[in-house]
Amino acid sequence: MITALFSSVEAGLLYALMALGVYISFRILDFPDLTVDGSFVTGAAVASVLIVAGVNPFIASLAALGAGFLAGCMTGLLHTKGKINPLLSGILMMIALYSINLRIMGKPNVPLLQQETVMTMVTAQFQRVDAALAMIVPFAPKTWAVIVFGTLLVVIAKVVIDLFLKTEVGLALRAVGDNKKMIASFSGNTDRLTIIGLGLSNALVAFSGALIAQYSGFSDIGMGIGMIVIGLASVIIGEALFGAKTIVRATLAVILGAIVYRIVITLALRVQFLETGDVKLITAFIVILALVVPQMVAARAEKQRKARKRGAAVASTQADYESI
């Protein structure tokens, strides 16, 4: 059980990068970007092919990040210059990326088990630390490399995003999501900001895909199916549990939401009658709960507030009547 939860936190940290990308498009830009299902695989495909070709895994992962940025920019161009509906732009790009990803990989699946990856390199560097921890805490997990590496990456990504969204361009990006017409009235280039925002979003998604491929030991043409729902689930769960009043708090909530989501999935799959194929159903159920429960709690709190207000008004009227 401890090992399963530990693996969930590992995966959650790597998926948190993808969730941060979805947060930029979904919350900052208010853009329902379905490109994510394709760009996640694009990142995995580019990194895998380059690693198999002998390229350094860190450089391959950065190349995946660049490929994701280009994919996001293409979606932005379809929407801003092609005047295509945001949802349809993402769908078209997602479909196009399916064929592009097959072209990149040359086949539906690229195994990485025999290759040196970022994960194997990081794990090798932590062997002494793992051995020392195993002697101190015998029941602890055998390797902490992915946890430490994933935490470092996520913290760097969070800090960079927080700082970027406070710059002039970042503030304009946030304003485009809130009120595009107002920014246009101030002669702001909303098209360029939208393209940049979608590029950054999909760059993070593709980078996450590259790391997940190296963590799992393969890239597969179907590994991106439903990724947008997982990203949205992480964002919604994080905001519901940890709040999102400020950008710093919101990005932290998204990261924690991604980890909580993986833990919930792991715990749910340990239920006897649920199977691995039920992951999508569980994800949909979690998202529904995260959307509905806060509204029910808020409605109940509002109802109680109104009841208290009515009670206070009645008590005041009764006191006035008795004084007469």
Task: Show the helix and strand layout.
Layout: H1 2-28, H2 36-52, H3 57-80, H4 86-105, E1 109-111, H5 118-125, H6 127-136, H7 145-164, H8 168-178, H9 180-185, H10 190-216, E2 218-220, H11 227-242, H12 247-269, H13 279-323
Antiparallel strand pairs: 1-2
Subcellular location: Cell membrane
Transmembrane segments: 12-29, 49-72, 84-104, 144-165, 193-215, 221-243, 250-269, 281-301
Main location: membrane
Structural class: mainly alpha
Strand content: under 5%
3D shape: globular
* Count of beta strands: 2
The overall pLDDT average reads: 87
Please state the CA-atom Rg, rounded to the nearest Å: 23 Å
- Show unreliable segments: none
Helix fraction by DSSP (H/I, runs of at least 4):
over 70%
Number of helices: 13
Order of H and E elements: HHHHEHHHHHHEHHH
* Spatial separation of the terminal alpha carbons: 70 Å
Widest beta sheet: strand line-up = 1-2
Largest sheet: number of strands, sense, barrel closure: 2 strands, antiparallel
